Protein backbone atom coordinates (compact mmCIF):
# COMPACT_ATOMS: atom_id res chain seq x y z
CA UNK A 1 0.00 0.00 0.00
CA UNK A 2 1.04 3.60 -0.52
CA UNK A 3 -0.06 7.17 -1.13
CA UNK A 4 -1.09 7.74 -4.72
CA UNK A 5 -1.95 10.88 -6.68
CA UNK A 6 -4.19 11.27 -9.74
CA UNK A 7 -3.67 14.57 -11.58
CA UNK A 8 -5.39 16.45 -14.39
CA UNK A 9 -2.57 18.78 -15.60
CA UNK A 10 -3.65 22.29 -16.52
CA UNK A 11 -5.37 22.62 -19.88
CA UNK A 12 -4.50 25.27 -22.44
CA UNK A 13 -7.24 27.60 -23.69
CA UNK A 14 -10.66 25.84 -23.43
CA UNK A 15 -11.56 23.66 -20.45
CA UNK A 16 -14.07 20.85 -21.14
CA UNK A 17 -15.72 20.45 -17.74
CA UNK A 18 -17.89 17.48 -18.79
CA UNK A 19 -14.78 15.32 -19.03
CA UNK A 20 -13.66 16.41 -15.58
CA UNK A 21 -16.92 15.11 -14.16
CA UNK A 22 -16.69 11.83 -16.06
CA UNK A 23 -13.19 10.81 -17.17
CA UNK A 24 -11.56 12.31 -14.07
CA UNK A 25 -14.08 12.32 -11.24
CA UNK A 26 -15.55 8.90 -11.95
CA UNK A 27 -12.13 7.29 -12.29
CA UNK A 28 -11.02 8.77 -8.95
CA UNK A 29 -14.17 7.46 -7.26
CA UNK A 30 -13.56 3.94 -8.61
CA UNK A 31 -9.94 3.98 -7.43
CA UNK A 32 -10.97 5.16 -3.97
CA UNK A 33 -13.21 2.09 -3.67
CA UNK A 34 -10.92 -0.55 -5.14
CA UNK A 35 -7.26 0.36 -4.66
CA UNK A 36 -5.40 -0.66 -1.53
CA UNK A 37 -3.83 2.59 -0.45
CA UNK A 38 -4.63 6.28 -0.16
CA UNK A 39 -5.90 8.04 -3.29
CA UNK A 40 -5.61 11.81 -3.69
CA UNK A 41 -6.66 13.89 -6.70
CA UNK A 42 -5.67 17.31 -7.99
CA UNK A 43 -7.40 19.02 -10.91
CA UNK A 44 -5.07 21.81 -12.01
CA UNK A 45 -7.77 23.41 -14.18
CA UNK A 46 -9.79 24.50 -11.16
CA UNK A 47 -7.51 24.03 -8.12
CA UNK A 48 -4.60 26.25 -7.22
CA UNK A 49 -2.51 23.53 -5.61
CA UNK A 50 1.23 23.09 -6.07
CA UNK A 51 1.45 19.49 -7.29
CA UNK A 52 5.15 19.21 -6.51
CA UNK A 53 4.82 20.40 -2.92
CA UNK A 54 1.84 18.10 -2.49
CA UNK A 55 3.89 15.10 -3.62
CA UNK A 56 6.60 15.93 -1.10
CA UNK A 57 4.31 16.80 1.81
CA UNK A 58 2.10 13.73 1.41
CA UNK A 59 4.84 11.21 0.62
CA UNK A 60 3.28 10.29 -2.74
CA UNK A 61 4.78 7.09 -4.15
CA UNK A 62 3.12 6.93 -7.60
CA UNK A 63 1.35 9.35 -9.92
CA UNK A 64 -1.14 8.93 -12.77
CA UNK A 65 -1.64 11.87 -15.15
CA UNK A 66 -4.65 12.26 -17.46
CA UNK A 67 -3.15 13.37 -20.79
CA UNK A 68 -5.51 14.77 -23.43
CA UNK A 69 -5.06 17.14 -26.35
CA UNK A 70 -5.80 20.26 -24.33
CA UNK A 71 -3.24 19.55 -21.59
CA UNK A 72 -0.60 17.34 -23.24
CA UNK A 73 2.14 19.95 -23.30
CA UNK A 74 1.72 20.73 -19.60
CA UNK A 75 1.46 17.03 -18.74
CA UNK A 76 4.85 16.23 -20.27
CA UNK A 77 6.44 19.16 -18.44
CA UNK A 78 4.87 18.00 -15.17
CA UNK A 79 6.04 14.41 -15.66
CA UNK A 80 9.59 15.56 -16.32
CA UNK A 81 9.67 17.67 -13.16
CA UNK A 82 8.16 14.92 -11.02
CA UNK A 83 10.68 12.38 -12.28
CA UNK A 84 13.60 14.78 -11.89
CA UNK A 85 12.69 15.88 -8.36
CA UNK A 86 11.20 12.73 -6.85
CA UNK A 87 12.02 9.79 -9.12
CA UNK A 88 8.63 8.15 -8.53
CA UNK A 89 6.77 6.02 -11.14
CA UNK A 90 4.40 7.88 -13.48
CA UNK A 91 1.55 6.54 -15.65
CA UNK A 92 -0.17 8.41 -18.50
CA UNK A 93 -3.80 7.71 -19.33
CA UNK A 94 -6.32 9.55 -21.52
CA UNK A 95 -6.69 10.08 -25.27
CA UNK A 96 -3.07 10.97 -26.12
CA UNK A 97 -1.48 7.66 -25.01
CA UNK A 98 -3.97 5.83 -27.23
CA UNK A 99 -3.81 8.12 -30.23
CA UNK A 100 -0.14 9.14 -30.15
CA UNK A 101 1.85 6.58 -28.14
CA UNK A 102 5.16 7.36 -29.88
CA UNK A 103 5.26 10.69 -28.09
CA UNK A 104 5.97 8.82 -24.87
CA UNK A 105 9.13 7.09 -26.06
CA UNK A 106 12.14 8.53 -24.21
CA UNK A 107 9.78 10.48 -21.96
CA UNK A 108 9.56 10.65 -18.16
CA UNK A 109 6.59 8.27 -18.13
CA UNK A 110 7.16 4.70 -16.96
CA UNK A 111 3.97 3.31 -18.52
CA UNK A 112 1.05 4.49 -20.66
CA UNK A 113 -2.55 3.37 -21.00
CA UNK A 114 -3.22 1.31 -24.10
CA UNK A 115 -6.50 -0.64 -23.94
CA UNK A 116 -9.46 -1.60 -21.76
CA UNK A 117 -10.89 0.81 -19.17
CA UNK A 118 -8.77 3.51 -17.58
CA UNK A 119 -9.65 2.29 -14.10
CA UNK A 120 -8.20 -1.21 -14.49
CA UNK A 121 -4.99 0.08 -16.04
CA UNK A 122 -4.45 2.69 -13.32
CA UNK A 123 -5.32 0.25 -10.54
CA UNK A 124 -2.83 -2.33 -11.78
CA UNK A 125 -0.14 0.34 -12.06
CA UNK A 126 -0.70 1.74 -8.58
CA UNK A 127 -0.85 -1.66 -6.92
CA UNK A 128 1.75 -3.62 -8.86
CA UNK A 129 4.29 -1.42 -10.62
CA UNK A 130 7.73 -1.47 -9.03
CA UNK A 131 10.58 0.55 -10.46
CA UNK A 132 13.05 -2.11 -9.33
CA UNK A 133 10.98 -4.96 -10.78
CA UNK A 134 12.07 -6.78 -13.90
CA UNK A 135 10.35 -6.04 -17.21
CA UNK A 136 8.88 -9.52 -17.37
CA UNK A 137 7.45 -9.18 -13.86
CA UNK A 138 5.82 -5.87 -14.72
CA UNK A 139 4.46 -7.28 -17.97
CA UNK A 140 2.75 -10.01 -16.01
CA UNK A 141 1.22 -7.69 -13.41
CA UNK A 142 0.11 -4.62 -15.36
CA UNK A 143 -3.09 -4.60 -17.44
CA UNK A 144 -3.93 -2.50 -20.49
CA UNK A 145 -0.63 -0.61 -20.54
CA UNK A 146 2.65 -0.31 -22.40
CA UNK A 147 5.85 -0.19 -20.39
CA UNK A 148 8.12 2.56 -21.73
CA UNK A 149 11.64 1.20 -21.96
CA UNK A 150 14.65 2.68 -23.84
CA UNK A 151 12.79 3.82 -26.94
CA UNK A 152 10.66 0.66 -26.90
CA UNK A 153 7.17 -0.30 -25.79
CA UNK A 154 6.66 -3.54 -23.91
CA UNK A 155 3.11 -4.88 -23.92
CA UNK A 156 1.52 -5.98 -20.66
CA UNK A 157 -1.56 -8.10 -20.00
CA UNK A 158 -4.68 -7.26 -22.00
CA UNK A 159 -6.81 -4.55 -20.46
CA UNK A 160 -10.24 -5.23 -19.03
CA UNK A 161 -13.59 -3.51 -19.10
CA UNK A 162 -15.22 -3.08 -15.73
CA UNK A 163 -18.93 -3.54 -15.23
CA UNK A 164 -20.88 -0.29 -15.75
CA UNK A 165 -22.28 -0.83 -12.27
CA UNK A 166 -18.76 -0.35 -10.92
CA UNK A 167 -18.28 3.03 -12.61
CA UNK A 168 -17.83 5.79 -10.09
CA UNK A 169 -19.45 9.21 -9.86
CA UNK A 170 -17.82 12.56 -9.23
CA UNK A 171 -18.03 13.04 -5.47
CA UNK A 172 -17.37 16.39 -3.82
CA UNK A 173 -15.29 14.59 -1.19
CA UNK A 174 -12.81 13.41 -3.84
CA UNK A 175 -12.78 15.95 -6.70
CA UNK A 176 -13.63 19.69 -6.79
CA UNK A 177 -17.24 19.37 -7.94
CA UNK A 178 -18.16 22.83 -6.60
CA UNK A 179 -15.34 24.36 -8.63
CA UNK A 180 -16.59 22.60 -11.75
CA UNK A 181 -19.98 24.21 -11.24
CA UNK A 182 -18.41 27.65 -10.87
CA UNK A 183 -16.28 27.13 -13.97
CA UNK A 184 -19.24 26.29 -16.19
CA UNK A 185 -21.51 28.75 -14.35
CA UNK A 186 -24.33 26.23 -14.22
CA UNK A 187 -26.00 24.41 -11.35
CA UNK A 188 -25.99 21.17 -13.32
CA UNK A 189 -24.52 17.80 -12.40
CA UNK A 190 -22.95 15.69 -15.14
CA UNK A 191 -23.12 11.90 -14.93
CA UNK A 192 -21.76 9.35 -17.36
CA UNK A 193 -24.51 6.94 -18.39
CA UNK A 194 -22.76 5.05 -21.18
CA UNK A 195 -19.37 4.37 -22.72
CA UNK A 196 -18.55 3.37 -26.26
CA UNK A 197 -20.24 4.11 -29.56
CA UNK A 198 -21.09 1.70 -32.39
CA UNK A 199 -21.05 4.35 -35.11
CA UNK A 200 -17.31 5.13 -35.10
CA UNK A 201 -17.18 8.52 -36.83
CA UNK A 202 -13.56 9.15 -37.83
CA UNK A 203 -13.45 12.62 -36.31
CA UNK A 204 -14.59 11.32 -32.89
CA UNK A 205 -12.37 9.86 -30.16
CA UNK A 206 -14.99 7.88 -28.24
CA UNK A 207 -14.51 4.60 -30.09
CA UNK A 208 -10.74 4.85 -29.54
CA UNK A 209 -10.80 5.40 -25.78
CA UNK A 210 -14.08 3.62 -24.87
CA UNK A 211 -14.59 1.03 -27.62
CA UNK A 212 -17.12 0.43 -30.37
CA UNK A 213 -19.68 -1.37 -28.23
CA UNK A 214 -21.99 0.69 -26.06
CA UNK A 215 -22.16 -0.17 -22.34
CA UNK A 216 -24.62 1.38 -19.87
CA UNK A 217 -25.14 1.71 -16.17
CA UNK A 218 -28.07 -0.36 -14.96
CA UNK A 219 -31.14 1.52 -13.75
CA UNK A 220 -30.56 0.38 -10.11
CA UNK A 221 -26.99 1.66 -10.28
CA UNK A 222 -28.13 4.98 -11.71
CA UNK A 223 -30.80 5.24 -9.03
CA UNK A 224 -28.19 4.98 -6.27
CA UNK A 225 -25.99 7.55 -7.98
CA UNK A 226 -28.84 10.04 -8.27
CA UNK A 227 -29.75 9.59 -4.62
CA UNK A 228 -26.28 10.85 -3.75
CA UNK A 229 -26.58 14.11 -5.66
CA UNK A 230 -30.29 14.99 -5.82
CA UNK A 231 -30.19 17.21 -2.72
CA UNK A 232 -27.57 19.48 -4.33
CA UNK A 233 -28.90 19.69 -7.89
CA UNK A 234 -32.16 20.17 -9.75
CA UNK A 235 -30.81 19.50 -13.25
CA UNK A 236 -28.69 16.74 -14.79
CA UNK A 237 -26.65 16.42 -17.93
CA UNK A 238 -26.83 12.79 -18.99
CA UNK A 239 -23.52 12.03 -20.67
CA UNK A 240 -24.10 9.39 -23.36
CA UNK A 241 -23.19 9.51 -27.03
CA UNK A 242 -26.59 8.12 -28.06
CA UNK A 243 -29.03 8.23 -25.16
CA UNK A 244 -32.00 6.92 -27.18
CA UNK A 245 -30.13 4.02 -28.78
CA UNK A 246 -31.92 1.53 -26.49
CA UNK A 247 -35.68 2.21 -26.36
CA UNK A 248 -36.34 -0.19 -23.47
CA UNK A 249 -33.67 1.49 -21.38
CA UNK A 250 -35.16 4.91 -22.15
CA UNK A 251 -38.60 3.72 -20.99
CA UNK A 252 -37.17 2.29 -17.75
CA UNK A 253 -35.14 5.43 -17.15
CA UNK A 254 -38.17 7.67 -17.66
CA UNK A 255 -40.29 5.54 -15.33
CA UNK A 256 -37.65 5.83 -12.62
CA UNK A 257 -37.37 9.60 -13.04
CA UNK A 258 -41.13 10.14 -12.89
CA UNK A 259 -41.65 7.93 -9.85
CA UNK A 260 -38.53 8.62 -7.79
CA UNK A 261 -36.96 11.90 -8.94
CA UNK A 262 -39.84 14.11 -10.09
CA UNK A 263 -37.98 17.27 -9.09
CA UNK A 264 -35.01 16.62 -11.40
CA UNK A 265 -34.95 17.90 -14.95
CA UNK A 266 -32.35 16.62 -17.37
CA UNK A 267 -30.83 16.86 -20.84
CA UNK A 268 -29.21 14.34 -23.14
CA UNK A 269 -27.68 13.88 -26.59
CA UNK A 270 -28.44 11.50 -29.42
CA UNK A 271 -28.38 10.97 -33.17
CA UNK A 272 -30.98 12.37 -35.53
CA UNK A 273 -32.12 8.93 -36.65
CA UNK A 274 -32.70 7.75 -33.06
CA UNK A 275 -35.49 10.17 -32.07
CA UNK A 276 -38.28 9.46 -34.54
CA UNK A 277 -40.74 8.06 -31.98
CA UNK A 278 -43.16 10.80 -30.86
CA UNK A 279 -44.50 8.73 -27.95
CA UNK A 280 -40.99 8.20 -26.63
CA UNK A 281 -40.36 11.94 -26.78
CA UNK A 282 -43.57 12.72 -24.91
CA UNK A 283 -42.57 10.20 -22.27
CA UNK A 284 -39.12 11.79 -21.97
CA UNK A 285 -40.66 15.22 -21.44
CA UNK A 286 -43.01 13.87 -18.78
CA UNK A 287 -39.96 12.38 -17.04
CA UNK A 288 -38.16 15.73 -16.93
CA UNK A 289 -36.24 15.93 -20.22
CA UNK A 290 -35.96 19.57 -21.23
CA UNK A 291 -33.24 19.55 -23.88
CA UNK A 292 -31.85 17.17 -26.50
CA UNK A 293 -28.58 17.82 -28.31
CA UNK A 294 -28.41 16.54 -31.87
CA UNK A 295 -25.27 15.99 -33.95
CA UNK A 296 -26.44 17.97 -36.96
CA UNK A 297 -22.91 19.07 -37.98
CA UNK A 298 -24.01 20.61 -41.33
CA UNK A 299 -26.66 20.42 -44.02
CA UNK A 300 -24.53 18.54 -46.56
CA UNK A 301 -23.10 15.86 -44.30
CA UNK A 302 -23.12 13.28 -47.08
CA UNK A 303 -20.11 15.05 -48.57
CA UNK A 304 -18.39 15.47 -45.22
CA UNK A 305 -19.15 12.74 -42.71
CA UNK A 306 -20.12 9.41 -44.19
CA UNK A 307 -21.64 8.21 -40.91
CA UNK A 308 -24.19 11.06 -40.87
CA UNK A 309 -26.10 11.23 -44.14
CA UNK A 310 -29.15 13.14 -42.97
CA UNK A 311 -31.06 15.29 -45.44
CA UNK A 312 -32.40 18.71 -44.42
CA UNK A 313 -35.91 17.27 -44.63
CA UNK A 314 -35.07 14.52 -42.12
CA UNK A 315 -33.32 17.00 -39.82
CA UNK A 316 -36.31 19.36 -40.00
CA UNK A 317 -38.79 16.58 -39.23
CA UNK A 318 -36.73 15.41 -36.25
CA UNK A 319 -36.47 18.92 -34.81
CA UNK A 320 -40.20 19.46 -35.20
CA UNK A 321 -41.01 16.17 -33.42
CA UNK A 322 -38.78 17.01 -30.48
CA UNK A 323 -40.14 20.53 -30.15
CA UNK A 324 -43.72 19.27 -30.41
CA UNK A 325 -43.05 17.26 -27.25
CA UNK A 326 -42.02 20.46 -25.47
CA UNK A 327 -38.28 19.73 -25.53
CA UNK A 328 -35.68 22.31 -26.57
CA UNK A 329 -33.26 21.30 -29.34
CA UNK A 330 -29.58 22.11 -29.32
CA UNK A 331 -27.85 21.64 -32.66
CA UNK A 332 -24.20 20.59 -32.58
CA UNK A 333 -22.53 22.02 -35.68
CA UNK A 334 -19.01 21.54 -37.02
CA UNK A 335 -17.28 24.31 -38.92
CA UNK A 336 -14.52 23.65 -41.42
CA UNK A 337 -15.48 20.10 -42.43
CA UNK A 338 -14.07 18.67 -45.69
CA UNK A 339 -15.60 20.28 -48.79
CA UNK A 340 -17.59 22.76 -46.69
CA UNK A 341 -18.21 26.17 -48.21
CA UNK A 342 -19.17 29.54 -46.78
CA UNK A 343 -22.65 29.06 -48.22
CA UNK A 344 -22.95 25.70 -46.43
CA UNK A 345 -22.18 27.39 -43.11
CA UNK A 346 -24.58 30.26 -43.74
CA UNK A 347 -27.40 27.96 -44.77
CA UNK A 348 -26.86 25.75 -41.73
CA UNK A 349 -26.97 28.71 -39.33
CA UNK A 350 -30.07 30.15 -41.00
CA UNK A 351 -31.77 26.78 -41.10
CA UNK A 352 -31.27 26.29 -37.37
CA UNK A 353 -32.26 29.88 -36.64
CA UNK A 354 -35.47 29.38 -38.59
CA UNK A 355 -36.18 26.21 -36.60
CA UNK A 356 -35.54 27.94 -33.24
CA UNK A 357 -32.62 25.66 -32.42
CA UNK A 358 -29.84 26.56 -29.97
CA UNK A 359 -26.60 26.40 -31.96
CA UNK A 360 -23.46 24.93 -30.41
CA UNK A 361 -20.65 25.11 -32.97
CA UNK A 362 -17.21 23.58 -32.78
CA UNK A 363 -14.33 23.68 -35.22
CA UNK A 364 -13.79 20.47 -37.21
CA UNK A 365 -10.58 18.99 -35.83
CA UNK A 366 -9.29 16.07 -37.94
CA UNK A 367 -7.77 13.99 -35.16
CA UNK A 368 -7.49 11.02 -37.52
CA UNK A 369 -5.23 12.99 -39.88
CA UNK A 370 -2.76 14.13 -37.26
CA UNK A 371 0.58 12.39 -37.67
CA UNK A 372 1.56 9.59 -35.31
CA UNK A 373 4.35 11.72 -33.86
CA UNK A 374 3.15 15.31 -33.72
CA UNK A 375 4.92 17.95 -31.70
CA UNK A 376 3.45 18.98 -28.37
CA UNK A 377 2.86 22.41 -29.89
CA UNK A 378 0.73 20.83 -32.62
CA UNK A 379 -1.27 18.88 -30.06
CA UNK A 380 -1.93 22.06 -28.07
CA UNK A 381 -3.77 23.45 -31.11
CA UNK A 382 -6.12 20.45 -31.34
CA UNK A 383 -9.03 21.97 -29.50
CA UNK A 384 -12.47 21.85 -31.09
CA UNK A 385 -13.21 25.40 -29.96
CA UNK A 386 -10.00 27.02 -31.10
CA UNK A 387 -8.43 24.81 -33.80
CA UNK A 388 -6.88 26.94 -36.60
CA UNK A 389 -8.90 25.50 -39.50
CA UNK A 390 -8.54 27.43 -42.75
CA UNK A 391 -10.15 24.91 -45.11
CA UNK A 392 -13.31 26.92 -45.94
CA UNK A 393 -12.76 29.22 -48.95
CA UNK A 394 -13.50 32.81 -48.06
CA UNK A 395 -13.70 32.15 -44.30
CA UNK A 396 -10.65 32.59 -42.09
CA UNK A 397 -9.79 30.31 -39.19
CA UNK A 398 -10.27 33.29 -36.88
CA UNK A 399 -13.80 33.76 -38.18
CA UNK A 400 -14.59 30.11 -37.43
CA UNK A 401 -13.33 30.56 -33.87
CA UNK A 402 -15.45 33.70 -33.52
CA UNK A 403 -18.49 31.74 -34.72
CA UNK A 404 -17.88 29.17 -31.99
CA UNK A 405 -17.93 31.91 -29.38
CA UNK A 406 -20.81 33.95 -30.83
CA UNK A 407 -22.94 31.82 -33.19
CA UNK A 408 -25.87 34.23 -33.03
CA UNK A 409 -23.68 36.93 -34.53
CA UNK A 410 -22.88 34.95 -37.69
CA UNK A 411 -24.07 37.69 -40.08
CA UNK A 412 -21.51 40.21 -38.83
CA UNK A 413 -18.72 37.65 -38.41
CA UNK A 414 -19.14 36.28 -41.93
CA UNK A 415 -19.76 39.77 -43.41
CA UNK A 416 -22.76 38.52 -45.32
CA UNK A 417 -23.63 40.15 -48.61
CA UNK A 418 -26.72 39.96 -50.81
CA UNK A 419 -25.76 36.63 -52.39
CA UNK A 420 -26.57 34.95 -49.08
CA UNK A 421 -29.86 36.68 -48.37
CA UNK A 422 -31.99 33.68 -49.34
CA UNK A 423 -31.68 30.45 -47.39
CA UNK A 424 -30.92 27.48 -49.63
CA UNK A 425 -31.23 23.89 -48.46
Protein architecture, described:
The protein has 425 residues and is α/β, with parallel strands linked by helices. Helix content is 36%, strand content 18%. The radius of gyration is 22 Å and the shape is globular.
SSE arrangement:
Elements: E1 3-8, H1 17-34, E2 38-43, H2 51-57, E3 62-66, H3 72-86, E4 90-93, H4 95-99, E5 111-113, H5 118-128, H6 135-141, E6 145-149, E7 152-155, H7 177-184, E8 189-192, E9 194-195, H8 206-209, E10 215-216, H9 219-229, E11 235-239, H10 247-260, E12 265-270, H11 278-286, E13 289-297, H12 312-324, E14 328-335, H13 342-354, E15 358-363, H14 376-380, H15 397-405, H16 410-413
Parallel strand pairs: 1-2, 1-3, 3-4, 4-5, 8-11, 11-12, 12-13, 13-14, 14-15
Antiparallel strand pairs: 5-6, 6-7, 9-10
**How many DSSP E strands?**
15
Estimated helix fraction: 25-40%
Structural class: alpha/beta
- The spatial strand order of the largest sheet comes to 2-1-3-4-5-6-7
Radius of gyration, rounded?
22 Å
Q: Supply the number of helical segments.
A: 16
Molecular shape: globular
Poorly predicted spans: none
Q: How many strands, which pairing sense, and closed or not: the largest β-sheet?
A: 7 strands, mixed
Features:
globular; six-stranded parallel β-sheet; alpha/beta; 425 residues
In short:
The chain is of the alpha/beta class and 425 residues long. 36% of the residues lie in helices and 18% in strands. A seven-stranded mixed β-sheet has the order 2-1-3-4-5-6-7, sandwiched between helices. The protein has a six-stranded parallel β-sheet with strand order 8-11-12-13-14-15.
Amino acid sequence: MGNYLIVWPKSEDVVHINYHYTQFGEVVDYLNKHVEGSISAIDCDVQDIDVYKYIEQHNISKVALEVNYENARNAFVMAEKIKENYGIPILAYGSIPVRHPKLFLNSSFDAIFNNGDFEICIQSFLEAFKAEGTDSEMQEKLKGAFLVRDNLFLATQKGEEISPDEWGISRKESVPVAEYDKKKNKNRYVINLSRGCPFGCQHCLIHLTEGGKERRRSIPNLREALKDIQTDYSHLKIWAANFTLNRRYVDEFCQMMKEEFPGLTWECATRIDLVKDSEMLKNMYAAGCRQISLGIEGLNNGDMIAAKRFTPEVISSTINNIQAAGIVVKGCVMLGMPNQTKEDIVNTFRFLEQHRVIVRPTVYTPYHHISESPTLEELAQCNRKSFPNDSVPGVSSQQLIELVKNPGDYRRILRLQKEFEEIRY
